[in-house]
């Protein structure tokens, strides 16, 4: 791929990770832009392009591709500012990294000769150091101008990622799936930690004791898939165990029991799909969960 002139707006974990990987792949990072000069300098230093640090939005004019690594709620307004106030040359490509927004949010009502792409790494990383290590080998969703999807694929390949296509109208469901798999998993672990802590352990000790089990479950999921990785009382048809769980959870906040019941019902479905749970056992467990 011929090196491209790039400008990056935003200095969070995504912006810095992408800047570093694309610079290492040989692309020309003309500007790394932040409202805070110190953050711009820190991000540019991390990416290896100290001279690219700036707070001047007009520097994007030096680039043929502008990457908006800003929050979901800022994408539309930042793109509108670029179009209306900064002025962009026809043929400029705008790219955002949101999993929820369509690419055309970058264009507004009038394209004005501009092009739009959306690239979303299906990966969770808390900071730029982890991001640089985690993004290579990760899947990236791409969506936007059909003619420019090969460009998105090339940029992802430059970062070591694997591109897959998704339609704009599918993005809310796609993003919801990602949130359940990542964000809600974290929340679910916090609920499990709180239940364990109710046994008299500190939250720190409760979490530590659950860590090994979570790691094993993650390995089994990756190797076997949800159906074959499923174990536990519902998969075994242990109705009385589920009933004891429910009675014990009555001592905790009501929403904890609600979470157990909702997940229990979905686990019954999964166990039935796996073929591990007989119909009569499923009915008994569902009855207990619904009482």
TrEMBL record:
It comes from the Bacteria. Residues 5-92 form the Pyrroline-5-carboxylate reductase catalytic N-terminal domain. Pfam families: DUF2520 (PF10728), F420_oxidored (PF03807). Residues 139-267 form the DUF2520 domain. This is NADP oxidoreductase. It comes from Geoalkalibacter subterraneus.
């Amino acid at each position: 791929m011929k090196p491209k002139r790039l400008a990056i707006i935003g200095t969070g974990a995504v912006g810095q990770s992408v800047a570093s990987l694309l610079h290492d792949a040989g692309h020309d990072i003309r500007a790394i832009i932040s409202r805070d000069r110190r953050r711009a300098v820190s991000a540019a230093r991390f990416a290896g392009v100290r001279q690219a640090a700036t707070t001047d939005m007009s520097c994007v004019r030096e680039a043929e591709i502008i990457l908006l690594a800003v929050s979901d709620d800022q994408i539309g307004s930042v793109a509108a500012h670029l179009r209306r106030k900064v002025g962009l040359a026809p043929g400029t490509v705008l790219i955002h990294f949101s999993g929820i927004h369509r690419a055309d949010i970058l264009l507004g009502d009038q394209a004005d000769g501009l092009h739009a792409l959306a690239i979303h790494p299906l990966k969770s990383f808390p900071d730029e150091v982890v991001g640089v290590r985690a993004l290579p080998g990760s899947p990236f969703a791409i969506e936007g101008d059909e003619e420019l999807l090969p460009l998105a694929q090339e940029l992802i390949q430059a970062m070591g990622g694997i591109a897959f296509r998704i339609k704009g109208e599918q993005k809310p469901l796609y993003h919801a799936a990602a949130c359940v798999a990542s964000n809600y998993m974290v929340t679910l672990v916090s609920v499990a930690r709180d239940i364990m802590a109710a046994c008299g352990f500190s939250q720190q000790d409760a979490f530590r004791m659950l860590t090994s089990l979570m790691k094993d479950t993650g390995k089994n999921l990756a190797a076997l898939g949800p159906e074959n990785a499923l174990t536990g009382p519902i998969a075994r048809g242990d109705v009385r165990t589920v009933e004891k769980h429910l009675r014990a959870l009555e001592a905790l906040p009501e929403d904890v029991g609600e979470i157990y019941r909702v997940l229990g019902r979905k686990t019954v479905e999964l166990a039935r799909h796996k073929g591990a749970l007989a119909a009569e056992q499923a009915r008994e467990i569902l009855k207990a969960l619904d009482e």
